[in-house]
User: Fold this.
Amino acid sequence: MKRNPLVEVSFSARRAADAPAEVLVLADGEQWKSGAVALLDERIRRDLIAEVGHQGFTGAEGSAAVFQTHGALAARHVLMVGIGSAAGASPWHRLADTVVSRACDLKASSAAVAMPGNAPAALEALVEGIELSSYRFDRLKSSAEKSSPRLRRLLILGSDGDAHRRAATARAQAMAGATCYARDLINLPAAAVTPSYLADEARRIARAQGLRARILDPPAIKRAGMGALLGVAQGSAEPARFIELAYQPRAATARTKGHPCVALAGKGITFDSGGLSLKTAESMQAQKRDMAGGAVVLAVMSAVRDLGVPMEVRAYVPASENMPGSRAIKPGDVVRAYNGKTIEVLNTDAEGRLVLADALSFAAAAKPDVLIDLATLTAAVRTALGSRYAAIMGTDAALVHALIAAGQSCGEHLWELPLVNEYRSDIDSTVADLKNIGESGSAGTIIGGLFLREFVAAVPWAHIDFSSTVVTDKPFPCHPRGATGFGVRTLLRYLRECVTA
Assistant:
């Protein structure tokens, strides 16, 4: 659900030398020896520039140095952080990550930041980065480990905080808060995050954001004709849920009287054993993350009202476990999706595309203006793109390019793969309309996209396969180890800025 900010942000017009914080952060580029740094150097007997220069500080993005003030300033330490040319969000995210990590090293709970220019866009990126970098999943740890020192207060210098800067701060905290909520859902164990748990979360989000919620249980899913979702779920003792949330903007925020409608669908497999096509023990260890698409969609819906998204948004999460119980679907079985197409299930570990077949065809039947789905669909995408890019495919070039641009603006990278029509025959079945895996075993990510395309009708559609980026074992700026929340900020930026009637 909606999270309180991890770091309290406030504003002050005080001079840097008088900032009431334990760490004074000076963000500057290659001309760092002038301006505020030069004034502080005078105050500290010309020791600051010499010392940080000796440490190798250059002002380039990623460079940093620490100076101990020994009482010459209100702050105990000066932290110099290079931002290079300060183009885009990346320098500010890297700055935020450095501030959070160095504050922890220095056992400081407060920091004051002097930013050149203090533009709202840069401020938004900084605050977003501070929240994302401060995230820790520690709710299952002992109280002793939770009590380690961390940054709790951030003071932005140079302004009392006008309406534009306060609005930028609120946007950043809402975007980052939604991302951290998705991280929580993905990091929690599968014993806690069941399909019923996701349904309960959806109800809470609906109450908090003023959304319409509809939750289908197995009998209702059967009546609706979602045979693919039921087929995946039948091997588990946990009953499936089909989650639908709908947001209508207030009249004052709608861009036009007939504002567009965006539909989002997220794969919600809360644990994937592979079913009877059982995964290995090693590959099964991380499969609590297989509901990340659903987590992202719920997280987006947890912030749409707070961010004043100006168009209708509908969200769909087919939630199920994929288990090898006595009633589990068997290789060779045939299921019928919501749109009537039949699917021969040759590999029960290719279950994500089955539950999305029902979700996408159900969403497309309501005729939204665009349809976007997110899924940890294939392992092949990591082989193709590594751990810092996700794949995107679609039927509408403008939609795909808008999502790529939205991701680029917030440091979430998407790379377009083609929907190769020549590969479509790989999923032809001799006993059903389709089969759920290809013949050759190659181009797995593209084959998955081609399969999903069969269920979107004529609605402009984009598919994001982010198995590659959903978790990280190696921390990088704004992304501690564990779930990344990848996709939340991309979708929210798209909904806020890129969709037009």
